[in-house]
Amino acid sequence: xxxxxxxxxxxxxxxxxxxxxxxxxxxxxAAGQTKKTFIDYFQPTPTACAVTSQTWGVSGVLPRDTxxxxxxxxxxxxxxxxxxxxxxxxxGKYHLFADxxxxxxxxxxxxxxxxxxAVSATALLGPYIDMGYAFDNGPNAQDxxxxxxxxxxxxxxxxxxxxxxxxxxxxxxxxSSLDGPWTxxxxxxxxxxxVPVNFPAPGxxxxxxxxxxxxxxxxxxxxxxxxxxxxxxxxxxMGPYKVQQPTNTYPSxxxxxxNLASIYPNRQKHLDPMAxxxxxxxxxxxxxxxxxxxxxxxxxxxxxxxxxxxxxLTSPDGIHxxxxxxxxxxxxxxxxxFSTSDGTVDNWFKMERPGVIMENGHITHMTFAVSDVDxxxxxxxxxxxGSKVVVMAFDGVAFDADTGIGGNGGGxxxxxxxxxxxxxxxxxxxxxxxxxxxxxxxxxxxxxxxxxxxxxTGGSHGSGGGTATGGAPGSGGAPATGGATGSGGTEASGGAxxxxGGATGSGGxxxxxxxxxxxxxLTGGAPGVTGGSTAGCSCDTPSRGTATxxxxxxxxxxxxxxxxxxxx
Length: 568
Fold this sequence. Notes:
5-stranded mixed β-sheet, 568 residues, 5 helices
């Protein structure tokens, strides 16, 4: 397989003699830097046990580490495993929740899959021992174990949730231990909230399909479903979840349909030259979204399962300014994705259902459901083909350092949500800039219409920013009470305090706020989360970044204009 060729970054200004040498020592301006996308942060994965060819699958996935993740190693496999979410318990054990169904049903038997719980006593990579059904009180009366799209999450109060959907109603379970028992809390309601969600035929019109959940830094809950529709609950885990009208930064040619409030860009072509030139219909076939929070922003991965290409989107507050960050994964790039530390490369045909494993606010590993051949038509009952859940190493610390808007992933959440009245919500504040004083920050973007909206409570306060003293009001939302006037280059240690309770940060470029200094703040809503605790399902707290030293700032100012690396 071919490794993806890096794309050169924009040409930077050149300077003479020793001046150039000094500038090249500064972060973000070194010669030869390349723009990375999500796929570039995957790492060779250590083996959990010696690779073997004594198992099912085509030659492209043999030999392989059958101890990684979970699979049936028999020939042919006894079960197909799909989905997959891993959480670490306080005792150090790792718990994996997935769905399975028997080989005797063929791969089409997924419509009757059952949710299981597996445990690895000491190692995140595995092996995981299938402990049997995760619950026996599911929403289907004929089969109380039935479930699909299974995932789980650590909650802010120290308990856990487990949820299933697609082939059953969107159902939530909670437990005080990952070992269970799981209490069925019932059907989770998703309300359209007056927002258009007209799914195009022949797409799946089920709103409760491919649901992914994130706990926001403000303690509220956000979900995304198959077609890129996002919904917010300000009333707890069980909702109701109210659909939000997102905004984006996509070009006019890639705007979503006016009658479908999706965050997916209407792609005209795939970014990977190895992918098919004829693109699948985004709003009919794109699926498998995953949402999480790290590096001071919200992230979504989603994919075109037949074209086998995945993409990465980001937003500063989970609702507004969704930005296309490019290629996330493509199994054609097997060496980049499926390499192990012993040099083995597995050429999986399909990779879907992404999941994140986070520690200290950063991704450490990804999970995917993979198959050795096309699962749609090449895995009949009794065949020697199958699927499994794989665990893949990922450099989330570098990823957040390179792409985060809070500086090394340490910034707090921008635009935390709080319940509003029928008048709708205020716009969200921009993220902070890094460096010394300068421009005044602008106000938040326009608020959402309709009842049950949210009010932003402030963005991340960047390094070098002074106390907020004014700023422009947000268009369409509540008036801004704090702009971002720079403090003249004073070094910040985690950012100055924002008077209305916004989160503090420790650096990072401005996105929606000023190019330097802190971000604007909007009044109302829930208080911001100080310290930048993550809203990912791991509910960890990201490490705080280091503020830029005054000597470097003075040097940069003295040198005049130079090309600062533009992070994405």
